[in-house]
Amino acid sequence: MGIRCGNQVLAPPLEWNPETGEELAHEFVDVGPAGTVREWCWVAEPTAQHPLDHPFAMATITLDGADTSLVHVVDAGSIGAMSTGMRVAPRWRAQRNGHITDVEAFVPGEEPVVPSGDAGPASEPVTMMEYDAEEHYRTPVTRNELRAEEAIREGRFLGLRCPACGRTYTGGKGYCPVDAIELTQEHEVDLPQTGTLTNYTIVTPVQYAGQTETEPFARVHILLDDTDVILNFQPLIEVPNDQIRIGMRLSAVWASEAEAEHADRNQIANLVGWMPTGEPDVEDPDLVNRIN
Ligand SMILES: [Zn+2]
Questions:
Q1: By the 8 A CB rule, do 194 and 250 touch?
Q2: Considering only Cβ atoms within 10 Å of each terminal Cβ, which end of the chain, N or C, has fewer?
């Protein structure tokens, strides 16, 4: 079904005129069921998230009587059976629920395919549509990250100084993002273990798997001395939340070897946190903006 919008029929129907944003009158028009493929691309190796488990095409399809296209799947069997302008018709699911996935796929030809054992439309009216999505990330660990971790285990912060621009970085993939040159072992420098609190967040813990905190706690951003390096979301030790100030001078506190053994895997292994040095606060109105 499409919806009338001026001289056009939009399918799938929209609630609003896409040009003006005005609400459309509910003037529905039957379209299809067959249509014409406008653009397509062949998916040779479907993943678990694709609608079909064998090779297929993603295509934009203009249903007969419509002026706009919808994106759907064409189960054509082979890439050779696909062409721009080809005619396709829906293959319906046995049980329809009022969702776009009631069309299992479009197939080449003019005739819709209705499965044997057609169960018809579901008797319950549609009141809510749910969309589930899942994403998987694979991030390779770089040599630079391994070396930084090793330094942390030794109670050091590892930095990389770019020979071109002179900036010092920590973390990252081992490249100067400004000059795009690789920074390797020869560019490593030990970073200071003291710094200034530039900004902070008080986190009120909600309970979720892995959350062990029960009381509001602080995470602070620290500008390491004599560098442009900010360490983000660091734990602060022995400072009540209402006494945290931008400009506080802080020093890193490392765990003993025995303590590090029991460290939470999510923490920087043996860095317990940061404690005030007792020096006077740094007065600099720009500090507050240094969070990255
Ligand atoms: Zn650089």
A1: yes
A2: C
- Rounded to whole angstroms, the Cα distance separating 217 from 233 reads 11
**Is pLDDT of 265 > 60?**
no
Distance 141 CA to ligand 1 centre (A): 22
Q: How many A from CA of 149 to the centre of ligand 1?
A: 22
d(CA 125, CA 92): 18
- Centroid of ligand 1 to alpha carbon of 273 (angstroms): 29
What does the pLDDT look like over 173-191, one tens digit per residue? 788 989 999 998 899 999 9
Asked if 145 contacts 171 with a C-beta cutoff of 8 angstroms, the reply is yes
How far is the CA of 12 from the CAs of 2, 86, 260, in angstroms?
6, 20, 58
Q: How far is the CA of 187 from the centre of ligand 1 (A)?
A: 11
Backbone angles phi, psi at 253, to 5 degrees: -120, 120
pLDDT at 266: 46
The rounded Å distance from CA 291 to ligand 1 centre is 20
Query: How far apart are the C-alpha atoms of 16 and 103, rounded to whole Å?
Result: 24
**Lowest-confidence pick of 89-93, 104-108, 267-271:** 267-271
| CA 138 to centroid of ligand 1, rounded, Å | 27
Cα 163 to ligand 1 centre (Å): 7
| Structure token pair of residue 149 | 């971790």
What pLDDT is attached to residue 221? Answer: 96
Strand ranges, E, within 205-248 = 217-224, 230-235
CA of 229 to the centre of ligand 1 (A): 14
